[in-house]
Amino acid sequence: xxxxxxxxxxxxxxxxxxxxxxxxxxxxxxxxxxxxxxxxxxxxxxxxxxxxxxxxxxxxxxxxxxxxxxx
Length: 71
What we know:
- By secondary structure, the protein is α+β, with helices and mostly antiparallel strands.
- It has two helices and five strands; from the N terminus they run αβββββα.
- The relative contact order is 0.22.
């Protein structure tokens, strides 16, 4: 998924319905909700947006993800 992908404008967090941010990762991309501090994986180009697919991140991970979020 690319930062300018139009799909990013319509994807929303399944929990709070707010926007998600693309975070490029070394091993795999993810979508991140900084409000709830939840990261959702992108597997084979498909965002996994079931509530159970998201994982809570620690405070340190949250700070790192904020730095890496695509503008």
